[in-house]
Structures are given as C-alpha cells and as structure tokens.
Amino acid sequence: MQKSSLIGHTIELLDAIGSTTQPADGVVKEFFRARHYLGSKDRRFITEAIYGMLRHFRLIDIVGSEVLRQYAQALPLRRPAIVDYAAYAVRILREDPGSAHDGIAGLWRVYMPEINCMDALTTMATVVPAPPMSANPVAHLGIIHSFPDRIVKEWVDRFGASEAEKLCKALNGPAPTTIRVNTLKTTVDECQRRLANEGVTTTRTTLSPFGLKLEKRINVNAHPSYKEGLFEMQDEGSQLLSMLLNVRPGQTVVDACAGGGGKTVHLAALMNNTGVLIAMDTDEKRLANIRPRLQRAGVTCARLYRSGYEENEIRSLTAQMDAVLVDAPCTGVGVFRRNPGAKRTFTSGFVESVAKTQRSILESYFTLVRAGGVLVYCTCTLLRQENEDQMELFLRDHPEFTLASAPEILVNQGVQVETGSPYLTLLPHTTTTDGFFAAVLERTM
Q1: What does the DSSP assignment read for 17-76?
Q2: Rounded mean pLDDT of 183-200?
Q3: pLDDT of residue 98 exceeding 90
Q4: Would the pLDDT of 311 be above 80?
Q5: What local confidence, expressed as pLDDT, does residue 308 receive?
Q6: What are the CA-CA distances from residue 328 to residues 209, 311, 390 (Å)?
Q7: DSSP per residue over 259-302, as a string?
Q8: Are 365 and 378 in the same domain?
Q9: What is the span of the domain harbouring residue 17?
Q10: Residue-level pLDDT at 75
Q11: What total of structural domains would you count in the chain?
C-alpha cells in the first residue's frame, strides 16, 4: 500500500481513538478486524504511528497548535488528525519537511486547504515548543517527552532532572517481550530449547530466574509450546512480585486482585501446585478468563471467588491465610510504554480516586492474614501517593503489621536488586522492567 494511503488509514484510526473513551488497544484491534485487506507491514506502519502519536501527544499538540495559530485565519473546533501526523513525522520521526511532504500533501489539501503544506511542515520542524531544561526542567521534560507535569515534578523532586529524563525516555520506548516459564511443566533451559526449535530466539532475563526475553514479538497462539502451557507472557518485574510472598508448597494463599491471573498462575508454580490458592476479583468476566489459563498451565490448587458476591466464603478465610497479595488498581504510570494513551487522560483527580480505592481494598483484605503471615502490596505505578504514602497510612493504623525488606527477600532468593530501601521500586530505565512498587508487611499479632 502507498504511504499516503497508510497515512490516511492512520489519521482515520486516530480520529476513532479520539472520539471514544475506550482503551486505544481495543480500538486498534477493532479497526484492523474490520479491514482484512491490510497486510502485516501495513498494520505495523499504522500501529507504530498511532502509538508514537499517543506517546508524544503533548509535544504534537503544541507543535500542531502553533502552526494553526500562525497560519489559520479561523481555528477549527477540532484540530484535523493530519496535522498531528505531520507533527509526528517531522518532530518524532525526524523526517525532512521535503520528504514528509510527498506522503502528506494530498491528504493535507483535503483537510487543511487554507494552509500551505510545505510552510506548515517547515514551521513544525523549527518551532521551539518548550523552555530549556536549565530554566524549567518540569515544563521542559513534560513537553518534550509528553508527560503530565504532575508526574514529572514528583520525579524531578525525587530523582533529579537527569534521572527523571531517563525515566521518561524509558517509558516512551518499546517494552521488551518477556515470558515466564511454567516450572510446573518444564525448566527454563528446556523451554528455551523448545522455543529455539520453533524458531524463537531468547535470552535469560537479568533479574527473574523464571524469565526469558524474546528477540522479537511473536503470535503466541501459533506456538505449540504456549498451547502446552510451557510459558506465559509476563513482564520480568511482574514475575518478581509473586516471589515476594515467599510461598511454600502446602500453604494457603490469596491473590486478592487477580485480574488476568498472571500472578495467580505464577504463585501456583511457586507452591508446586499444592496447598490452597484463592484468586479473587470483582469482575466475573476476568475470573472466567482465568479458568482456561489455569487449565493450560496445569494448575489444580486454585479456587476462584468473586469479591462482593461470595462474601461468606471470603469471611471464612479471616486470619487463616499464610500470605495475601494485593496487586492494587492504580494509575498505571509504570506501564505507560504499554498503554501510552493513558498519559492523555491522566489527572490529579484520578490519583485521588485510585488512592481511595486502594485504601478500601487494603482494609478489606488485611484481615485474611494470620499472625505470622504476610501481606504484599504492589502497584504498577511510580507515584508516592499510591505507594509509600499508602503504606505509611496503613502502618500507622495497623500496628499489628511491620514493614519487612522486600529487596532482601528477593536477594535471599538469588535476585540481585538494590537493598537501600525496605520497599521494592523497579524503574524501567535501570531495570528494563515495567515500573513497579511493592511492600511486604508481616503480621506480628
């Protein structure tokens, strides 16, 4: 397909994403499902462009708006998506205005006939969208890397401007494709050999003893080793979170916010498929999706409870559990590279709302932990209000719990992480994992 046609499909998809509250990945899948004529290279071009524009939405917005301000006699109610693509081409892809013009000019004449395309592209390439780092690091990083100022300010205050910039860059880059080997069915070495026989090149993960990094993305459903349950798609950092419970075979364990069930399956493997593992979630559809995942992995020790509906069963677990995992809902700041569209909808009000939900969940499930047991709280965000502040409030109100060193628990299992804090904080620019926070709370009475 010609480049101009691909750009046309891209701006059509961008308009579709902008006109709905649905997550971008779902809109993208539906868009391609309705257009079977698009080949794999076509889909790759469109997908990379869409996610590139979502990652850099703030910079693109400023550059595109400046062009309209300079040239348009009357500003449109909504900026045409071709303007966003043009800004993406010259500012993110670094295309020369002359080269970019060839693929954009025809569409530009349709959507922006009142502005000369070449003039607009030249302006986009030269406009200065942000103050220099030395003058205002928060505004500079927020605009150049398209992050909300609320997030950037916290990171600059905590880590310094240089580290904050590295973190922004890492969360704007592609995430590695990582799997966790299912030790109920195979070993890491054997799984690596099986994948090699299937044409998939992998390397061992740096931190997780159960992980493999794939050289490139694959369609897992096309691989017999996946269908046989030899591995699961799971970020390396996420794999470490289950290890923090330090579970043993025969124990009773709760995964209180099971979601898709990735950590549930991992906990079952760590328990050697013995004992009792209870996965809970409020969403019946999510629980239904866990069942085939458990079956494929060969997990037989797990039970599924729907929170809010099977309360009698849940209350019967009070003070009975050896370990409880609360993988709390959060703003998802640590996984922006996987869901860049979330940057556009992030607000301080969202943080407040999520923090209230997190406190409610903690208050609901800490009662399940027996004396001598552990509660592990984790999120995929990197904001204090959802992480350290939550733990300080919880420990203030619950003196029966004490804070253990999460990093030392991992070090004792052979995982080399920094131990300068009792909390586990995984930063993508230093670990290559997604961004995670975790705390281990021991119940002493």
Answers
A1: HHT--S-HHHHHHHHHHT-TT--HHHHHHHHHHHHHHHHTHHHHHHHHHHHHHHH-SS--
A2: 97
A3: yes
A4: no
A5: 76
A6: 24, 19, 11
A7: TTSHHHHHHHHHTTT-SEEEEEES-HHHHHHHHHHHHHHT--SE
A8: yes
A9: 3-126
A10: 66
A11: 4
